Amino acid sequence: SPDLKEQAARANLISCWIDPIVSSVNIVLGVFSVYRQDAGILNPEQLTLLEQASRLVGITLERKLDEESLRLSSSVFETSADAIVITDENNLIVAVNPAFSRITQYTPEEVFGKNPKLLSSGLQDANFYKTMWQSLTALGKWQGEIINKRKDGEPYSEWLSISTVFDDQNKVQQHVAIFSDISDIKRSEAIIWQQANYDTLTGLPNRRLFQDRK
């Protein structure tokens, strides 16, 4: 650009060598540039030093990006309003976030190493879970509504999404489950349906319900 040319001219820089900064998965992160105040080409030793410097900068940048990504992921995990559960390849809980404890009443220490079925309310039959696991096996994901129970035994409705994480050999490495408590929504829907289909004074079905049932 004109600005860079002007700055180079002011510094009396007349030659430049550029080497791409590439990540470990061959993504270009930037360029490493060397400027000189004399014309000419780099000798093999200087070219090797340029390539080594470029690789070192790439490793540093990639590590920095990984750290920032981890910090962001950790922040999302900790502050999410939805509960997050991570299980290992044996479907045993290895991590939960604060929202999980708020919704289920279980502390992390109470569920680590346990199977998520400790939340089961018993209100879903075996076919429900069979279908869920068939989807996780075939598609690597499942989502739907489920009724689980809190630590005190109170059942609650949740909207649950589960994703399977595979390793490089396509073997199951983890399951990540994200769910929200939709009990209040379900109660509100039930009240609205009741008011729309039953007389508020007598509690008897109204004309709308009779029409729906014809």
Write the layout of secondary structure elements.
Elements (H helix, E strand, L loop, with lengths): L1 H9 L4 E8 L5 E9 L7 H36 L3 E5 L5 E4 L1 H7 L3 H4 L14 H14 L1 E9 L5 E12 L5 E10 L1 H15 L9 H7 L1
Antiparallel strand pairs: 1-2, 3-4, 3-7, 5-6, 6-7
Fold and architecture overview:
The protein has 214 residues and is of the alpha+beta class. The protein has seven helices and seven strands. It has a five-stranded antiparallel beta sheet with strand order 4-3-7-6-5, sandwiched between helices. A two-stranded antiparallel sheet has the order 1-2. The longest helix is centred in the first third of the chain and has 36 residues, at 44-79. The chain is elongated and about 95 Å long. The mean pLDDT is 84.
List keywords for this structure.
alpha+beta, two-stranded antiparallel ribbon, 214 residues, five-stranded antiparallel β-sheet, elongated
State the gist of this model.
This protein is an alpha+beta fold and 214 residues long.
